[in-house]
Amino acid sequence: MRTLKDAKVGETVTVARLHGEGPVKRRIMDMGITKGVEIHVRKVAPLGDPMELNLRGYELSVRKADAEMIEIEAS
Description:
The chain is an alpha+beta fold. It contains two helices and five strands, in the order βαβββαβ.
């Protein structure tokens, strides 16, 4: 299983599945990260946290802990 945390800078991936439960999963979905959405990894902070993503026409920063809950597949 490959997660968003494993994606490299410049890579475009597709969300395969969301893990987690309750409010955490709901928060991820409220940010626009749902199954089938394409995500482009723009930057990763020098220490690896957070990641800057581009999806649905906007930019989003996500912590590594949240990125681990997002299962991806190559686009």
